[in-house]
Design goal:
14 helices; single chain; mainly alpha; about 325 residues
């Protein structure tokens, strides 16, 4: 298929999915009540949530720099923070493009090769997944999350599981193994081919980026930044809860539960989490906390759109500042 046509089809399919999720979230909405809900908010708390989001982006950039230091000891803090902010902006514009954009930006402004910086991104994701898994385990026992998962996800899954499904899973595993065996057998021939050689070099570069993470001199600082980033995510939800009187009775543990649901909404492959975030958060607030659908959607909308506005504003500012720094450095070299 023509790459341009493939890109267009992918963009259209993502847009259709986004619109469908938004329809599911907002069908039957009483828009007068929705507007009144938005007006009832204390927007100083919303600004505080946005400020926490900005600080979280800066800390993510500083944490990423620690992974890049073994590759280039002179990589700049400002470049890493700018690249991270533009990463979020890019993800809103084009699905899953942000990581490539920030790796490209840091490769342009430092001596870090693109494929090595991409390897560092893999380390970041591994850490974030580990922290999220630990928080999920804690929430399972400390919040209504455990009962929600068992009732709405685990029980329906077990009920739908059958012998036929088990055989399908086994068949998929066998097919995967059969597909890998020829690659292992003809690895040397693949390595000598033009395309295969490029793929292997790319993978080696990513591995080098992963190895660089274990050479960090500031491992404690990396862990500290990771904890602070998660704390700021949680504070964003806490501040939005304080902003909206109808949900002000929710606690800090409830905010942690909503935060994890929000991360799931952002992870679903739709641009900017539109629709997915609203559906997932409202789906949990209604049955667990007894909040009506209208109020839950107002809360989800305020929380999501505050993050989107913050990402767009900070991303545009970071992009403009990056261009300014690039031109300034080029002029100094001349």
């Amino acid at each position: 298929m023509n790459p341009k046509i493939k890109s267009i089809l992918k963009y259209v399919s993502v847009s259709v999915l986004t619109l469908f999720l938004l329809y599911l979230a907002f069908r039957g909405m009483d828009w007068n009540s929705f507007v009144e809900g938005l007006r009832s908010c204390n927007y100083w708390w919303i600004f505080a949530a946005m400020a926490a989001g900005v600080l979280g982006t800066v800390l993510r950039g500083l944490r990423w720099r620690l992974l890049l230091l073994p590759i280039d000891s002179k990589v700049r803090r400002v470049d890493c923070c700018n690249a991270y902010a533009v990463c979020y902006l890019s993800n809103i514009a084009v699905l899953r493009s942000g990581e490539l954009v920030r790796c490209g930006m840091i490769a342009d402004s430092s001596k870090v090769p693109f494929k090595d910086s991409l390897g560092s991104v893999m380390v970041e994701r591994a850490w974030d997944i580990l922290v999220s898994a630990l928080m999920l385990v804690a929430m399972f026992f400390l919040t209504p999350f455990g009962g929600f998962m068992v009732e709405h996800i685990w029980n329906p899954f077990v009920a739908s599981f059958s012998t036929k499904t088990l055989f399908m899973v086994i068949a998929l595993v066998v097919l995967l193994v059969l597909a890998i065996l020829p690659v292992v057998r003809y690895m040397e021939r693949i390595r000598r081919s033009r395309i295969g050689g490029k793929v292997i070099d790319f993978i080696k570069g990513m591995i080098n980026g992963v190895k660089a993470a274990f050479k960090m001199k500031h491992g404690f600082l990396f862990v500290f930044y990771t904890i602070l980033v998660q704390l700021l995510y949680w504070l964003e939800v806490v501040f939005v809860i304080h902003a909206f009187p109808a949900v002000s009775h929710l606690t800090g543990m409830d905010a942690l539960f909503i935060m994890m649901l929000g991360l799931v909404g952002w992870a679903i492959p739709v641009q900017g989490g539109f629709g997915a975030y609203h559906v997932i958060v409202s789906m949990a607030l209604v049955p667990i906390y007894g909040i009506d659908q209208q109020t839950a959607l107002v809360f989800a909308t305020i929380s999501h759109e505050a993050q989107i506005v913050q990402m767009i504003l900070v991303g545009l500012a970071a992009l403009a500042f990056s261009v300014y720094l690039r031109n300034r450095r080029q002029n100094i070299k001349r």
